[in-house]
Task: inverse folding
């Protein structure tokens, strides 16, 4: 079976990353799942951005171009302009898109402080209830404490532990939390790690794949999901149709 396709930060090659436009683009591009990154603002609001600051993603003409998400309020973040006139979304708004389209979502908790609130929001929106064996939402994170906090609040929401390189501490964490999946960096992925994960009962996500060679290797290794900035390209490449060269 071919792996399912996860739209990275919505569809980061098709629209400004982690914006509402990107998540709509991911849906339109046929992503099987979406992925977003969550931080907590200074006044306790769940906001969508990959970095800890707005510095990299703020547009040149943004009224506010620098600052840490943890130090900025939601009102201040509302003044930030992103490329193409986009704004910093809330997690609620991203979930509206995912739920409206019926597309499951990986919610990557970037700040430990956001973990409990994220898990509770997913519960409040009934995204902790699987239908026909398909989970509508996952919580994923590089941070062990974020995963532990999420598990404590919502034990029914599946977890994925994320890492660049899977060392013994990582495998111990996945075993401790009984994570349903592990998410491994494709460029640093030994063949043996996929087999080890499957033997332990974890699904395997490989990230981030935008070229044909690593995509084909991921398929050969038998990973369960692949994360790409361009879900439409990944779909064509998996189908063996259209232009599948490096993006």
Result:
């Amino acid at each position: 079976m071919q792996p399912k396709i996860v739209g990275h930060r919505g569809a980061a090659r098709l629209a400004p990353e982690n914006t509402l436009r990107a998540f709509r683009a991911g849906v339109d591009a046929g992503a099987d799942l979406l992925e977003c990154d969550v931080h907590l603002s200074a006044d306790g609001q769940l906001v969508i951005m990959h970095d800890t600051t707005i510095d990299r993603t703020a547009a040149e003409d943004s009224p506010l171009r620098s600052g840490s998400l943890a130090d900025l309020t939601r009102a201040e973040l509302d003044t930030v302009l992103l490329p193409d006139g986009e704004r910093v979304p809330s997690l609620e708004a991203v979930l509206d898109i995912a739920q409206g389209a019926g597309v499951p979502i990986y919610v990557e908790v970037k700040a430990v402080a956001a973990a409990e609130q994220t898990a509770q929001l997913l519960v409040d929106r009934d995204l902790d209830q699987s239908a026909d064996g398909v989970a509508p939402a996952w919580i994923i994170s590089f941070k062990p404490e974020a995963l532990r906090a999420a598990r404590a609040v919502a034990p029914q929401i599946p977890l994925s532990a994320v890492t660049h390189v899977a060392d013994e501490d990582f495998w111990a964490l996945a075993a401790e939390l009984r994570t349903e999946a592990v998410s491994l960096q494709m460029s640093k992925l030994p063949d043996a790690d996929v087999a080890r994960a499957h033997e332990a009962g974890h699904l395997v996500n490989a990230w981030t794949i935008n070229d044909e060679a690593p995509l084909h290797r991921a398929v050969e290794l038998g990973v369960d999901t692949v994360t790409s900035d361009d879900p439409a390209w990944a779909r064509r490449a998996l189908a063996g149709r259209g232009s599948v060269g490096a993006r």
The radius of gyration is 17 Å.
